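Weekly modeling sync, notes
Attendees: S.R. (lead), two postdocs, one rotation student

Agenda item 3: backlog of single-chain predictions. S.R. asked that every request posted to the team notebook include the full sequence so nobody has to chase files. The rotation student volunteered to paste the first one in as an example of the format we agreed on. Action items at the bottom.

Example entry:
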Amino acid sequence: MAWWGTLLGGTLGYMFGGPLGALLGAALGRNFDQGLKGTREPGVFGAGEQQRVQAAFFTTTFSVMGHIAKADGKVTPDEISSTESIMARMQLDAQQRKAAIGLFNAGKQPDFQLHAVLVQFRQECHRRRNLVQMFLEIQIATAMADGHVHASEKRVLFTIGEQLGFSRADIEQLLGFAGSSAAMDSGRPSLSTAYKVLGVDRNASDAEVKKAYRRLMNQHHPDKLVAKGLPEEMMKLATEKTQEIKSAYEQIKKSRV
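Predicted structure, as returned to the notebook:
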């Protein structure tokens, strides 16, 4: 929670502006209007840089979740439940939860500046693709909260993906992974589901399966994601993902003995 303490302490507030600063400031009842300060070499964190990316991730995650939830014209109880579930798994304190709800509500508004928010988010993430992918996976989980993705939600996801450097094929693949992950969570996943979680087919060699497993584990490693800027509170989401990947891999290995 170091980023949150830094934010409330004022240090982060001094250099965190733009549309994300405006959103977070409104959610907290504070004024973060000084704008972005300084320049950064892509891929390199300076003093307080990690906390800044964590604040940007938190802000973008919940505001865009609200935008996606409203994409089909209404926010369903399932979508609200999905958002509350994520908050619960993050174990947010009362102030963080209030801010998350405020951001979610801001994302639902007709004047929500999706493009500007994503431009700044991508800038803050410094092309950290694994971190951005985790963000997309959370958004896809929100879209799938009611059991299926509406056409309007899918269009928004394609738009978000494109702005963040992910193709339509990439988003379709993540949608497939999300569906398979939901099946893994059911408690009785099929072997075909396990293959889909790893993104390989039944004819893949043992070496190919192992390579896919290691790649996915590396992409979702909680400690690595936090080091790249994932808020510490979201480590549980990444841990759950690695457990799904490991479970799928173990199931496939067992079937090949």
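Discussion: group reviewed the output briefly. Residues 34-47 have pLDDT under 50 and may be disordered.
Action items: rotation student to repeat for the remaining queue; S.R. to check formatting next week.
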